[in-house]
Each structure stands twice: as C-alpha cells, then as structure tokens.
Amino acid sequence: MTAITRRHAILAATALGTAGLAGRAYAHHGWGSYDSTGVFTIEGEILVAKYENPHGEVEIMHAGKRWTCTLAPPFRMQNRGLPPEMLKPGVKAKVEGYPSRVHETEMRAERITIAGKTVELR
Questions:
Q1: Rounded Cα gap, residues 57 and 72, in angstroms
Q2: What's the 3-state SS for the chain?
Q3: What is the spatial distance between Cα 19 and Cα 25, in angstroms, rounded to a whole number?
Q4: Which residues are 60's β-sheet partners?
Q5: What is the pLDDT of residues 54-65, one digit of tens each?
Q6: pLDDT tens-digit map of 50-98
Q7: Are 73 and 82 in contact (CB under 8 A)?
Q8: Which residues contact 4 (CB under 8 A, 6 or more apart)?
Q9: With contact defined as beta carbons under 8 Å apart, do 56 and 74 qualify?
Q10: pTM above 0.85, yes or no
Q11: Structural contact between residues 71 and 19, judged by C-beta atoms closer than 8 angstroms
C-alpha cells in the first residue's frame, strides 16, 4: 500500500467513525424537548419495562393512553435502589416528571414510586 493510499484509507475510516458517532448522538435525545415548567404525574400498571442503556424506560397505560416514561441510566437506578426486579409488567407505578413537547404521550421521569418506595432518578 502506498503512502497516499494508506492516507486515504485512514481518512475514510475516520470519516466513517465520525459519522457513526454522530448517528448515535442524534438517536439519543436531549432533555430540552421536555416541558420542565411543571411536574406531571401518571399512575398505572407497567406494560413494558426496559432496563438498558442509555436509559431505562417503562410504558404505562394512563387515562386511556399508553405513556412512555424515560427513566435514568441503569447504573443510577441500581445505585438509588431501583433494581431491574422492581420494573416488571403488571406492577403498579406512579411516575412524576416532565411531559414531552414533541411526543404527546412521552415523559421524562424525575421519580418513580413502586410498592410504596420512591426513587429519585435525576
């Protein structure tokens, strides 16, 4: 491989790597899309629970709508006393947080209460 070809290969690999990182950053939304002017509360049974990076998530039926609640990253939930065993379908939960300005039935959770135990997520 010549020096010019090697340099082009390095530049191409760098460009592809940078594009991959940009795509991952775009996929993970920021918190600016949530209305933090007032706390919103929903209660109901957990339909779906995800305990994974970059953050956990539960889906709860509330007032006839299926809400998606964005939780904290798994390491934070675990450290604050919310192990994966607590987030299961069928478990009743109260979630307090901020509604999305983009998606009508999405919220960023600040705290979650399950079986009388409240966990601060932020």
A1: 8
A2: CCHHHHHHHHHHHHHHHHHHHHHHHHHCCCHHHECCCCCEEEEEEEEEEECCCCCCEEEEEECCEEEEEECCCHHHHHHCCCCHHHCCCCCEEEEEEEEECCCCCEEEEEEEEECCEEEECC
A3: 10
A4: 46, 67
A5: 999 999 999 999
A6: 999 999 999 999 999 999 999 999 999 999 999 999 999 999 999 999 9
A7: no
A8: none
A9: yes
A10: no
A11: no
Give the separation between CA 52 and CA 31, rounded to whole angstroms.
18
Rounded to 5°, angle at Cα 85 from 82 and 91? 90
pLDDT of residue 29 exceeding 70, the answer is: no
pLDDT computed for residue 32 by the predictor: 81
Could you identify the residue written with the tokens 């299926």? 66
